[in-house]
Amino acid sequence: MFIYKVCTETLWREAEREGVFRGAPVDFQDGYIHFSTASQVAETLAKHFAGQTDLLLIEIDTGRLGAALKWEPSRGGALFPHLYGALKLAAVTRVVPLPLGAGGIHTLPPLPA
Q1: From CA 32, how far away is CA 16, in angstroms rounded?
Q2: What is the distance between the alpha carbons of residues 38 and 110, in angstroms, rounded to a whole number?
Q3: pTM greater than 0.85 (yes/no)
């Protein structure tokens, strides 16, 4: 199974240099790294990243995260994946740009269900 992190290219390139992703400011504030499932990504983009450019979609293999990954209720009681710890880049399976399309909506690549 895969989960997804939306972040700026600047933050991601820093993670690549360090060999680990420690999170975005909201992640530090909340004490865990926020992720979305394939079915949650579009809503996450619309709610938290509307109109932003320079974004990347990071795909993560949940099987490589271990016990630090927790599924917790959030928006409307839906379960969201949260990582309590740093994201090791070995868990990342692909990194995809998220360009703005028609109407300022991000264009998502096909995502496995």
Answers
A1: 19
A2: 9
A3: yes
Q: Which fold has domain 2-100?
A: ADP-ribosylation fold (3.20.170)
Side-chain-side CA neighbours of 3 within 13 Å: the count stands at 19
Q: How many CA atoms does the CB half-sphere of 44 hold within 13 Å?
A: 21
Please tell me the total number of residues recorded for the chain in this structure: 113
58 Ramachandran zone, left/alpha/beta (phi>0; psi -120 to 50): beta
CB atoms within 10 A of CB 11: 20
**What is the per-residue pLDDT for 97?**
97
The CA-CA-CA angle for residues 22, 112, 99, to 5°, reads: 65
| pLDDT of amino acid 113 | 65
The pLDDT of residue 76 is 81
68, 83 contact by CB (below 8 A)? yes
Q: Which residues of the chain are under the pLDDT cut of 70?
A: 75, 113
Domain ranges of the chain: 2-100
